[in-house]
Amino acid sequence: MVLTTPTPQQDRADDGTPVRDRTTTWLVVVVVLALAVRLVAVRHGLPHAYNADEELHFVPQATRAADGDWYSGYFENPSGLTYLLALVFRVALPGTDASMLLVEDPAVVYTVARLTVVLLGTATVLAVALAGRVAFGRTAGVWAAAFVGLSYLPVFYSHHALNDAPTLLPTALALAACLRLHDRGGTRLAALAGLAVGVAAGVKYLAAPMAVVVGLALLLRVVGGRQRLAPALRDLAAAAVACLAGLVALNPFMLVEVGKFWGDFSGQSAQAATVKLGQAGAAWAGYPVTLLWGFGVVPVVLAAAGLVVALRGDRGPDRGRALLLVTFPVLLYVLMSSQDRWFARWLLPAYPALAVLAGLGATRLTRVLRGALPGVVRPLAAALVAVVALGQPVVDVLRSDLLLTRTDTRTEALAWLVSHPEVGRVVVEPAVPGSYRRELRDAGLELRPVSRPFQSYELGLSAPLLDDYRAEGWCWLMVNAHQRDRGLAAGLPGAISYYRRLAEESEVAMSASPFAAGTEPTAFSYDFSFNYYPPAHHRPGPVVEVRRLDDCTEGTP
């Protein structure tokens, strides 16, 4: 049975409208809304990319590739998004030295890169709709599209030129191909599924475990007696070859520099296995909680209900599809929970499968409500489910979009420093992008040499450092809570004594807070301090202070 064809009872809705026409209309509405919420504040923070990963990864390598240097010698992240952005830069910025433009006018480069991510994120909505349709029908597909298109984390990270949101597109396509492979079989479908997995892994390594789902789809066919073992092994081989082809096509230099690739990849894995300075909580407990705000409480409940419905159904294909849908999220969770370092966005590749399961849950709930409601209000069943299921995600997304339209605290601090030439010399903590420091120098300010990474800076702090500043004539300091709070949260004695003495022996000349008046500031978090989910956040950025040391004379001694 092919579930994408409506049953006779589903051919028309209660008002007589053909189901196909209604689902198509609503899918268009969902796609337009998903695009709109991703476009809002797409230029937030510019010309500065305040997200450190956005500043340091993908875009700089993409500009060099656009200028002809395709080998970056960088394998900490796969180069799929990098090469795509390079091609986009060549089309959108013809005849331009992209690397030079990134220095002279970074806003243009980052805007093009972010718009590319916006389009990929919007295309993901269609891909998830396809996966939902293949699994449980057109209506479930539309619901699934809405859940991934309007949930907080997928929308938030579509505002950044990072590989988190783009990974969802090939992952969703791989999921749809695996579901179709489970239903119909065939070497071409197996190769297509493998290729999609390879492309997904070529954008973000975390998508690689989707390969297990391809093998599971074939295994279920063999166990169910729908395919012999030998043809299944042939299809598995075709999927493996296609997967490797997709991965290598987007990362060709991994074959040229095998040692460098393995060193960078292993180094990245080693970093994930170590706790980040100031990070609290355990991954195994933290990841499920992130779903409650990143995906939504009711969508999570509907996904669980959809899984139960599919597993308890009397149709074998539905149970098989349920296993395919739940395998990758569970596998990704188990793998990532074994790491000491964790972030909510690392679970994003699981969202398409969760959205499809939630789509089935919403479809069944709507059907139950239609049977329970009086005839007059029966057509409102879907609207009631939509309000309940999408209320939290939509409100959160709209609040986030509005927040990103407001002035970043770091931008306000930059404007203050530039407009106060009496500062002259200033110590700026490293939690700002290089373009930020260049703008300060261009305004005539002298900056004390401070190098990244953030953790090393915090580990090197101590109270006597302030005496060095005074002796060298560095009387002004810009304190950034993204920098300061990680050391304080980690309980580093040197950082604690440094910031305590700084507060006692300096005056605040300028302060900018991201929190709404009358609200309690949130504790430092590698999720909430950077994606601003808590309602206390009124605008982007950390708390920033410009302080002047007491008993300090400016100038070189």
Explain what the structure shows.
Helix 3 (59-66) packs across helix 4, helix 5 (98-104) crosses helix 6 and helix 17 (351-372) runs antiparallel to helix 18 (381-404). Helix 20 links the parallel strand 1 (425-428) and strand 2 (446-447). This protein has 25 helices and 5 strands. Mean pLDDT is 92; it is low at 1-12. The protein is mostly helical and 557 residues long. The protein has a 5-stranded mixed sheet with strand order 2-1-3-5-4, with helices on both faces.
Can you give keywords for this protein?
557 residues; mainly alpha; 5-stranded mixed beta sheet
- Ranges where pLDDT stays below 50 over 5 or more residues in a row are 1-12
Residue share in helices?
55-70%
Query: Mean of residue pLDDT?
Result: 92
**Beta-strand percentage range:** under 5%
Given the C-alpha coordinates, what overall shape results?
Answer: globular
**SS-derived structural category:** mainly alpha
Strand order of the largest sheet: 2-1-3-5-4
N-to-C SSE series?
A: HHHHHHHHHHHHHHHHHHHEHEHHEHHEHE
Total helices: the number is 25
Give the tally of β-strands.
5
